[in-house]
Amino acid sequence: MIAVCGGGEADAETMRLASEVGRELAARGALVISGGLGGVMTACCQGAHEAGGLTVGIVPGTNTSVANPDVDIAIASGMAEGRNVLIVHSADAIIALKGAYGTLSEISLGLAMRKPVAVVGDWCPIPGVVLFETPREAAAHAVAATVRAGGQRA
Amino acid sequence: MIAVCGGGEADAETMRLASEVGRELAARGALVISGGLGGVMTACCQGAHEAGGLTVGIVPGTNTSVANPDVDIAIASGMAEGRNVLIVHSADAIIALKGAYGTLSEISLGLAMRKPVAVVGDWCPIPGVVLFETPREAAAHAVAATVRAGGQRA
Amino acid sequence: MIAVCGGGEADAETMRLASEVGRELAARGALVISGGLGGVMTACCQGAHEAGGLTVGIVPGTNTSVANPDVDIAIASGMAEGRNVLIVHSADAIIALKGAYGTLSEISLGLAMRKPVAVVGDWCPIPGVVLFETPREAAAHAVAATVRAGGQRA
Amino acid sequence: MIAVCGGGEADAETMRLASEVGRELAARGALVISGGLGGVMTACCQGAHEAGGLTVGIVPGTNTSVANPDVDIAIASGMAEGRNVLIVHSADAIIALKGAYGTLSEISLGLAMRKPVAVVGDWCPIPGVVLFETPREAAAHAVAATVRAGGQRA
Question: Among all residues of chain B, which has the CA nearest to that of C106?
Fold first, then answer.
């Protein structure tokens, strides 16, 4: 199970990259977990579905109906920003696309929990992540790390 | 998505009932969510798998590897008993089999959140639940309530 | 640190009992922790203040300003009903006054965590609690259990 | 209520700065909230006590006995790293001293929740924080922001 993080609102290029991350993960048999809402979260779920994958979304509130339509399994945390912790706890690895402070919190939490964190692009100010130029490389890295650790697959 | 609650250790009759609850839910197209560990949680996941269903388990710790083998989607809450709240928040209805205080906490939380709570058997001291003699009746009731509310299906 | 649980809306007699629980706890040097809102939560904080005690309130949302004016230390859980788990985790013992399902969830969680649970009055359907007729007896019992376990004092 | 964040293990200079942050906050009437364990968390609580302040610690596990001896009010989250979210939710402002990824997660969460984040020193890679050279300046900034927002005082 691999977390995909990034902005709830995103530019067209970031959306394209997020969709490709979802496709590449699903094509490798990984479950995709995200915050289940818009922007990067929507794009990665759509991409995963295009490749026949399964998607999990952990939403901040107490109602799963806010999840985007490409979330297969919606979990209602009722924990506001605390849902970021659940996403990172549940993931075997994290792939981060361009985002704001919520995304940085997920990257920091992933690193604090000693999980592999792959970042697509050159935007991340936090040291300790592994940078990739393409979704394909980031997905391959994250899935390889997960398989080594014996993680969940779809 | 329907939560199945009950003892982490259970007698043979309760295990049989839990397995049948899982089968009846999966046969009606419901996703089964539970605490993902042993006893009733294991039996309901096995039953759901026998009927081709999909199962979600929210485990108390930070490691998904403790989930029973019939959990398809494991979420690591890292929240100890707090994971009970996530199960109830995410479920459209709750079916409870014989259990101890953890099960009573899930029943109470479900009622506090005004969700349908169906109990199999005559063991529950908390008023306000709907009692059923058989798993089939409880599953039919829970699924009907979920469909009326527009809940998640597998 | 002793949790006081009970209805967010309460009748005059329950409010009187809750206030007396707060006074009796504070007079014995205990910290009072509650959900920080109205009804029993307000009354126990007022009672604690009358006896010079200190009060902690864990509110459900992300804003501490909803806490009642007699909460000295407000914690914003942002966890909705999940805040009940934090109250019980933090308490050395629980005193419950008449309440609804939220109160039953706190009683169940307390028993699941093997903490002493003292109930004032004859209203509680859950077995395993210790029943008391008066706030004074319940407070004495809870404080004695806490002292034996080495718990926090104001 | 002002959160003090920083490494659970810290060098002598960071400990000295953290202690001074605690003293400066308490001298201005602020409640100090932290993760309640070692390093910066211990030093800021000690400093607050030297100036007569009150300290709150939210510990990761389910047992408050791990809190450092200068924590007055210990809250057991039972939420592992998720306790960082509770600290930030409850704080009116955040002061961060040198730390690792857990500290970066608290800074990110604070910024995501649009709370003032003051950093002592020149070590923080995350943009959007306000940098200060001395604990006195950081404390004054954080308390001023809190007073403007109507926050909690000891």
Answer: B105
Q: Are A117 and D90 in contact (CB under 8 A)?
A: no
Name the residue with higher pLDDT: D81 or A103.
Answer: A103
Query: How many whole angstroms separate alpha carbon C126 and alpha carbon A97?
Result: 49
pLDDT digits (tens, 9 = 90+) for D9-68: 999 999 999 999 999 999 999 999 999 999 999 999 999 999 999 999 999 999 999 999
Q: Is C52 exposed, middle or buried (0-12, 13-18, 19+ CB in 10 A)?
A: exposed
Angle between helices A12-27 and A40-50 (to 10 degrees): 40
Is the reported ipTM for this assembly greater than 0.90? yes
| Adjacent-strand bridge partners of C59 | C76
What gap in Å lies between CA B81 and CA B101, rounded to an integer?
A: 11
Provide the 3-class DSSP secondary structure of residue B61.
coil
Among A104, A113, A114, A129, the strongest candidate for a mutation testing the D interface, having the largest count of D CBs within 10 A, is: A104
Measure the CA–CA gap between C12 and D45, rounded to whole angstroms.
Answer: 41
Distance, in angstroms, between C13 CA and closest chain D CA?
30
Q: Which residues from A are below 8 Å from C62, CB to CB?
A: 80
The pTM (predicted TM-score) of the whole model is 0.94
- Among candidates A79, A89, A105 on the partner chain, residue whose Cβ is nearest the Cβ of D109: A105
The residues facing A30 across adjacent strands are A153
B52: closest CA of chain C, how far (Å): 32
**What type of residue sits at position C131?**
L
Question: Residue A112 and residue D127: Cβ atoms within 8 Å?
Answer: no
In the β-sheet with A55-59, what is the strand arrangement from edge to edge? A73-76, A55-59, A32-34, A2-5, A93-96, A117-120, A130-132
Chain B residues in contact with D82 by the CB 8 A cut-off are: 78-79
Residues in B closer than 8 angstroms to D62, CB to CB, are 80
Q: Could you tell me which of B77, B75, B66, B60 has the C-alpha nearest to residue B42?
A: B66
Do the chains contact at B89 and A62, CB–CB below 8 Å? Answer: yes
CB contact under 8 A, C80 and A78: yes
- How many CB contacts within 8 angstroms connect chain A with chain D? 75
Between CA A133 and CA A138 the distance in angstroms is 8
Chain A residue set in contact with C, beta carbons under 8 Å: 62, 78-82
Pairwise CB contact (< 8 Å): A75 & B65:
no
pLDDT, tens digit, 9 for 90 and up, residues D100-114: 999 999 999 999 999
Q: Tokens 């089964």 map to which residue?
A: B32
For residue B128, the chain C residue with the least C-alpha distance is C101
Q: End-to-end alpha-carbon separation of chain D, Å?
A: 8
Query: Alpha carbon of D39 to those of A137, C93, D6: distances in Å?
Result: 39, 30, 8
* Model pLDDT, residue C151: 66
Kindly determine whether residue B126 and residue C128, on different chains, have CB atoms separated by under 8 Å: no
Is D25 within 8 Å of D48 (Cβ atoms)? yes
Helices marked H in chain B: 12-27, 40-50, 83-90, 101-112, 135-149
CA C58/CA C60 separation, integer angstroms: 7
Find the closest chain B residue to A78 by CA distance.
Answer: B89
Q: State the Cα–Cα distance between residues C88 and C103, nearest whole angstrom.
A: 11
